[in-house]
Amino acid sequence: MIVLRFVLLRLIQMIPALIGITIVAFLLLRVLPGDPASLLIGARGSTEEVEALRHQLGLDAPLWQQYLTFLGDMANGSFGQSITQRRPVATVVLERLPPTLVLIAYSTVLAIILTVPLAMLAAVRRNSWIDFAIKAVFVVAMSMPPFWLGVLLILLFGLKFPIFPVSGYGEGVFGHLWHLFLPAFVIALGTAALTIRSLRSSIIAVRTADFIDTARAKGLPENAVLRRHVLRNSLISTISVLSVHTSWIIGGTVVIEAVFALPGVGDLLVTSIFTRDYPVVQGLTVTFAALVMLISLITDVAYAAVDPRIRLE
Amino acid sequence: MAPLLSVRDLVTVFESKTRPVQAVDSVSFEIREGEVFGLVGESGCGKSATCRSILRLFAGAPARITGGTIEFAGRDLTCLSEAEMTRVRGREIAMVFQDPMTSLNPTMRVGDQIAEGLIRHESIGRRAARLEAIELLKQVGVPSAEQRLDSWPHEFSGGMRQRVLIAIALACRPKLLIADEPTTALDVTIQDQILKLILRLREQYGMSVLLVTHDLGVVAQTCDRVATMYAGRIVETAETPSLFARPLHPYTIALLNSLPGGKKRSEPLQPIGGAPPNLADPPPGCRFHPRCSIAVEACRSTAPALLPVDAPHRVACLRRGAEPS
User: Fold this and answer.
1) B81 at interface of A, judged by CB pairs closer than 8 A
2) A237-242: long-range pairs with CB below 8 Å, 24+
3) What ipTM did this prediction achieve?
4) pTM for the complete prediction?
5) Number of domains comprising chain B
6) Do B43 and B137 share a domain, yes or no?
7) Which of A58, A309, B70, B190 lies most in the core, judged by the most C-beta atoms within 10 Å?
């Protein structure tokens, strides 16, 4: 019940922040040089034609008026009309959102699956060859540009050993999971490189805590001590790292989507910026902002779930 | 009757970057069944290291037992494997640590922390363990035990947490309870309650207690026998009344003289001059000689053995029997 009230309250608190973001997104776009009308008509169009289109799109109105129109479009749920596609922005964005959302969630889950056992292993066998090996592999993975790693994986698991598809989004839950494995894995490697380091060092610190000796003095074998007492107390700082990194990923799936030919929002964002499709870029910016806030909300709930001393208020 | 615990020539070494530190240097003592045995000395003298050696729990510090035997109920604990040690810990020997504020897992309910040892050692289910945990909380004097079982550690005061830690330690009815400065972090009224609780439970369960403290007042109040430690060695051991009536080692005498209350009120307290030696580089001969008021030339070169003066009272001092100057 407390959790539900907290979540509701936070969702309400998100509204003013989102309005602030609409202002920034709106103004930043108008500051960019370039004009959607002339881009749409092309170099051969006459000035009159461009002006007529500008008027039709409402781009000749004063800025405050354009902004109010945008707010109004947001309020009615359409987020306005896409200039290039002549369809409501909401429809355009929602069409492209699922692959990106699934990719982000999938890569986060994969990162967690990689992090927990490897960080525990590295911490317990601290400074052994296995610790160094884990560190080395992930430093290399993090240093490699994702598009390069993506291409390598496509060559290896798509062509040489055709286990995974190299492009597309697939059908149904298992189809999605199968199709998105390689791109999600590329992102997960980058995330895990950070979270393994963070979790490893907290595990090492927590293992010297007094209450760990209390647990050992009960006669628990070391693996039970790790599982039941060390892990949960080590998670807090790693949850922060994971949360920050996942927020960062939201705007950064463009490259991976391009490499694996995924119909996600990354590609939509790039095209819309090039064609100065203001309403779509605004809609995407607000969507990304809402997602980042949602992740921070999930993070706060996760903190409270892990550590009872943290209260949701 | 054979003693319950018999530590012989125990040596424990802590590895360090510069040179290994011998925190415990040929320590020998015995604890009989049902007895409260006190280990006193100032901070860093090896009391805790001695206790931790018995259970082989060094809080992740790079420590090793390099010599001696720890015979407990007929077995040498130094020969047991780590897996065999987990069956001794909690079940036969339990330990209560110094700081109740940091010794409970902050992310686990108190009841689960008590039940954990029971589930591990006695083949009982969660439900039975829960009932047993309520019983234990009542035993250690936690009010409204049923409700408190599902509380988190941060909802308890220091004294209540120490009671919970004692409940955890007693869960499997150990034969020996090691209490490493169990009252140091608590205020005086709570200290007294906790000591009385330990004594009552000792009676009730018939267990032995190894009580580590730097407080001679606590020793006088609780211990049957006592050993004084200095710089990793036991310098004097006796039955408690005998130690207080006729302390023989200059260090024990100095400790007693530095207590308020034992002497006439008008006399000032007498602190012990100097500082305890660095265990990485201890002084040769008797380790107390740089601070000793009756040291002679021989004390600088000869380490004194722990020798009996009258039967159970033994002292490691070359000048035993000499009148303090």
Assistant:
1) no
2) A237/A198, A237/A202, A238/A115, A238/A119, A238/A195, A238/A198, A238/A199, A238/A202, A239/A299, A239/A302, A239/A303, A239/A306, A240/A299, A241/A194, A241/A195, A241/A198, A242/A108, A242/A111, A242/A112, A242/A191, A242/A195
3) 0.90
4) 0.86
5) 2
6) yes
7) B70
